[in-house]
Write a structure and sequence with these properties.
Strand order of the largest sheet: 5-4-3-6-7
Strand content: 5-15%
Structural class: alpha/beta
Distance between the termini: 31 Å
Radius of gyration: 27 Å
Number of helices: 17
Number of strands: 7
Largest sheet: 5 strands, mixed
Shape: elongated
Number of domains: 2
Helix content: 40-55%
Oligomer: single chain
């Protein structure tokens, strides 16, 4: 038996006031100019937090554009109604929007673990817009900023938060370190003959993996490799020695360890590590701030994975406006309108 649909028609009363013009009767079950009732809109925005807009539209028999409109209205309401608490520790990072180096800038409250702001692109002007929206008075409450070494972000923070402590994220520092190790490995692969290369195939993640995560077979292979090649030995031991920095609690001892490590890296005759030392020297204060604050963008990296999942389940967004609205709706813990 086919389903039977019921259609209700209602004509709202209109009042023509000679002083202020025409007024239309307000009715409780729908918002002005809305195509769906308040009850249905509430169900739609709740499901849209867990499913794609297309799937949400299919469940309720709507067009996905109607779902997009409801989500944007809910986000606008949430941004206007949310409590703007003072920010003390913030994390800044970029997340890829689409191919071709298209990015979004994400600002995260590291103290309360909640998304604060999303902006298009990753330029200095993008981040400056966030600080402008934040206001001069609220900018003074920010004590620490954790971010990567992207120069545009550093300039914006230096301009708008001159008193805040800049801390370069541990994850990104280690990422540069691992690139140096991998560059040494690739240089050795280019230098070795065809027969010697056989023993060094598939060792990239073996060198980058933490020692306590290695299996017994991987330890045996790694010990054999480091005995055979002096350059890879130096790169591997330099990597492990640098990682000790994150375990040192005393700031003075941490700085001493880092400076000794940089001197050793300069004497290693490994060009990739010499370039990494130059990077450390230009960002030394922000790296050593880890020993005092112990902040990282680990929670923000987890949020970035959730943001990418929002894009993947919808097979991407053509409009940046819609993508940002979906991110706010799913990640910012905004108050939802009471559509009942």
């Amino acid at each position: 038996m086919r389903g039977v649909s019921m259609v209700l028609c209602y004509a709202p009363r209109r009042v023509n006031c000679p002083r202020c013009g025409v007024h239309v009767e307000a009715y409780r079950w729908a918002e002005p100019w809305a195509r769906v009732t308040r009850a249905l809109a509430g169900c739609v925005i709740t499901l849209a937090q867990r499913e794609s807009w297309q799937e949400t539209a299919r469940v309720y028999g709507l067009n996905w554009k109607s779902v997009a409109t409801l989500v944007r209205r809910a986000v606008d309401y949430g941004l206007a109604q949310r409590r703007r608490q003072p920010l003390h520790w913030i994390g800044i990072d970029e997340v890829s929007r689409k191919k071709g180096h298209r990015y979004l800038t994400v600002v995260y409250d590291l103290e309360r673990r909640v998304l604060v702001w999303v902006g298009e692109d990753r330029t200095e002007n993008t981040l400056a817009k966030f600080f402008t929206d934040l206001g001069r008075r609220r900018c003074t409450t920010v004590q620490a900023v954790c971010m990567d070494m992207w120069a545009a972000y550093a300039k914006a923070v230096a301009t708008h938060l001159p008193r805040a402590q800049v801390l370069f994220d541990r994850f990104h520092v280690v990422q540069h370190l691992n690139r140096a190790v991998d560059e040494v490995r690739r240089a050795e692969m280019r230098r070795l003959g065809r027969r010697e290369r056989v023993y060094f195939k598939r060792i990239r993640f073996l060198l980058l993996k933490s020692p306590w995560n290695l299996t017994g077979q991987e330890r045996d292979r790694l010990s054999t490799l480091v005995r055979w090649n002096a350059r890879i030995v130096r790169a591997y031991y330099l990597k492990e020695a640098f990682q000790q920095l994150w375990l040192i609690a005393d700031p003075t001892a941490a700085e001493l360890h880092l400076r000794q490590w940089m001197r050793a890296a300069k004497r290693s005759r490994l060009q990739a590590f010499k370039l990494f030392v130059q990077l450390l020297e230009s960002h030394l204060e922000g790296i050593l701030a880890w020993t005092r604050l112990r902040l990282s963008n680990g929670a923000l990296e987890g949020m970035n994975n959730k943001i990418k999942l929002i894009s993947h389940r919808s097979f991407g967004f053509r409009s940046t406006r819609n993508y940002i609205a979906a991110i706010y709706h799913c990640c910012a813990k905004l108050p939802l309108p009471d559509w009942r």
